[in-house]
Amino acid sequence: MHNQFYIRSAYFLFTLFFPSKVYDKENFPQGKALIVANHYSAIDPAFMYRFVKRDLFFLCKKEAMEKKVAKKLLAEAGAIPIDRQTNDMRAMMNAMKVLKEGKKLVIFPEGTRNKTGEELQELKGGAGVFAVKTKSPVVPVMFLKKPRIFRRTFYIVGKPFELDEFYDKKLVKEDYDKIDSIIREKMLKTREKLKEYRRKKGKKCKS
Question: Which is nearest to 36 in space by CA: 136, 116, 118?
Fold first, then answer.
């Protein structure tokens, strides 16, 4: 259970430094869900606390939690440390436990921060398995640009979708590839919708 006073206080301060505008926020689910998002910065998970101040967890590289203070703060915020150099079964089990308990798990399937400027890097794979194994809906959340201090960050919540064709099935490589392809397509379509919203906003400002 997160420390609610800490989360609410930290989020209030965060919003002062990083204002934001979210589109289609009604798509953010009430129950359990796997949140898949593109990844520009270390503060990306903080934007999710706009919707929920508890029962929200996210995978975090273990290196970010090596220092005592950072470890405590990140743990309070719901970070699950994962060793990206190995097949970290403990982290995977902890992540699936979050979903099985009806909570929300945030994953950045690109695996690392996007420094290329591309819309979406190649997915590392495996994110969708959490949803399949726990029969959880997947929700794409896409950022338009890298967040910067005192500049409004634009992002969008896509419509939840299920990977139910893979439920109760022994998965093979072709299934994993198809799952990744579906997730990538949904993420790109969601980001395109965000860009469309911003284009319309630009036209209104000019008229």
Answer: 136
Go through the chain and tell me how many residues it has. Answer: 207
Name the residue ranges covered by the structural domains of the chain: 4-206
Pick the CATH number of 4-206 from 3.60.150.10, 3.40.1130.10, 3.65.10.10, 3.10.450.50: 3.40.1130.10
In this structure, the number of other CB atoms found within 10 A of the CB of residue 96 comes to: 18
Could you tell me the pTM of the whole model? 0.89
| Each residue's pLDDT tens digit, 53-99 | 678 898 888 887 777 777 777 777 788 888 877 777 888 899 999 99
**3-class DSSP string for the chain:** CCCHHHHHHHHHHHHHHCCEEEECHHHCCCCCEEEEECCCCCCHHHHHHHCCCCCEEEEEEHHHHCCHHHHHHHHHHCEEEECCCCCCHHHHHHHHHHHHCCCEEEECCCCCCCCCCCCCCCCCCCHHHHHHHHCCCEEEEEECCCCECCECEEEEECCCECCHHHCCCCCCHHHHHHHHHHHHHHHHHHHHHHHHHHHHHHHHHHC
Number of Cβ within 10 Å of residue 72's Cβ equals 13
Across the chain, mean pLDDT equals: 88
According to the model, what pLDDT value does residue 49 have?
Answer: 86
Contact present, 49 and 56 (Cβ < 8 Å): yes
